[in-house]
Specification:
single chain, 257 residues, alpha+beta, Nuclear Transport Factor 2, Chain: A, Pnp Oxidase, Chain A, nine-stranded mixed beta sheet, 17 strands, elongated
Amino acid sequence: MSDLAETVLALLRAPGDVAAWAAILAPEATHETLSATIEGREAVAQRLGGEPFAQLDWERMDRPGLILAGKPRPGGPGRSLALTVASEGGLVTRFCQQFLTTPPPSPGTPMMMSEALRARFDTALAEKHAMYIAYVDREGRPHLSMRGSILTLGPDSLGLWARHGGGMPEAIAHNPHVALFYRDEGTRATFQLAGRARIADDEATRRRIFDAMPVVEQRHDFAELGAAIVIDLDLVTGWAGFGPTGAIDPIRLVRQA
């Protein structure tokens, strides 16, 4: 192992020492994560010296280049990390930090979509963020389709119109479990939803779902031969955007048993 790798490992395994970190950094050094980039020797040294790296057990990964992995001790805090280190002339020029594991899911809050979240889904097509739905047919084959008719029926349910001749009504009669996805690339708002779908046979629900659809969707089925589908949501997770400090307004809504 190179001297630089040994030095970095020693610093990771000991309480933060800003001066020691600064001594191995190039003047233009950067520290990069998914959400932010810090530039300059002093700023990077302050960041690295303030990280609780010593809570993890560190070792070099068997990969090209210098990549170090830190894993929590049994029962200890934190998540596994990887640090990719680039150097030039014996000094570190770039640290790239990423998580190796996902955090455990939070218990969540009761399934009660806010008015803001409902408005986001209700205007998805108009805002050019049409949602996708996944379901499984009788043969166990997954299907994914973009839907412009999705709307919220309440704080814990969605509705959509499936045109005549499509495979979704037959599929959900066999397996009601579905998943949906919403993404706004501009703000990086991302939501994943899961629930159980059923066909609504009562005229009031059919009328409500059809009448609430955008006109462009209604024109695909003038004769109203399709099926009104109701989705009872069991899980909604995601965030309203992504900024320098990470996810903005993250949520995890769970239907209570």
